[in-house]
Amino acid sequence: MTPPSPIAGVARSRSWVRGCFVVETRPEAGPVDRAAVLLLPPLGYEETASYRPLRVLADHLAAAGRLVQRLDWPGLGDSALDPGDPARGPDTLSIVGALVEALRARGFERVVGVGVRAGGLLAAAAGGFDALALWGVPPTGRRYLREERAFQRLSAKAFGPAPESAPPLPDGAREAGGFVYPASLVEALGALDLAAALAASPPAQVLFLPREGT
Fold first, then answer.
1. Which helix (H) or strand (E) holds 111?
2. Burial 120-147 (b: 16+ CB within 10 A, else e)
3. How far apart are CA 138 and CA 5, in angstroms?
4. pTM score, two decimals?
């Protein structure tokens, strides 16, 4: 049973789209806006840190009359695939387009994407959005991977190296803060370029929100 929302008049349901776990938040009664919102979280540790804020954002948007979907990326949370599965690269890139198409098939006239960090890169690469809000999104996937390498070095310094009994990572895979990026996902992310993606499939509106902190 889906737990009640802390905001009155808002309902949640759960589903899977191509093995991707999706939580849908919507008004419990009354009209629903013809513009749906797709919340695209970050990857890795940043996804766990942003889960509650994005849930609260979804509740407030639904209370304002909008249908909102937020997801667990392939290999994360309640979605399918093992974290180290080589299929994570292709599946992660394709799932956004599948979700946008599913919302349009339900009759929504506009689909608005809110992408946080790597989620914004993936949203821009998928295209098909009428509007995008890009929150703390790096300019390229290579820049994002460099930041993840730096995060891993800080984690190793704070908590110590992995024990000798830990199995080595597969060739081309990377770890950041306890989360594994398989080689296929590393390669896919490394090829992403925000400016080029927006030029190839320009939304009518784009809002850039800077990242706070260092």
1. strand 110-116
2. bbbbbbbbbbbbbbbbbbbebbebbbee
3. 32
4. 0.90
Which single residue is written with the structure tokens 């300019």? Answer: 139
- The string of pLDDT tens digits covering residues 99-143 is 999 999 999 999 999 999 999 999 999 999 999 999 999 999 999
Residue 146 lies in a domain: no
Work out the pLDDT band at 1, boundaries 50, 70, 90: very low
The CATH number given to whatever domain includes residue 111 is 3.40.50.1820
Q: Is residue 22 part of a domain?
A: yes
Beta strands 20-27 and 110-116 are unpaired
Amino acid at 181: Y
**Torsion angles phi and psi, residue 87, rounded to 5:** -70, -10
**Number of independent structural domains in the chain:** 1
The single-letter code of the amino acid at 121 is L
Nearest to 178 by CA among 48, 26, 79: 48
Q: How many other CB atoms sit within 10 Å of the CB of residue 191?
A: 14
For the segment 44-85, what is each residue's pLDDT rounded down to a tens digit?
999 999 999 999 999 999 999 999 999 999 998 889 888 878
Residue 198 belongs to some domain of the structure: yes
Reference 109, options 87, 86, 94, 131; nearest CA is: 131
Beta bridge partners of 131: 112, 205
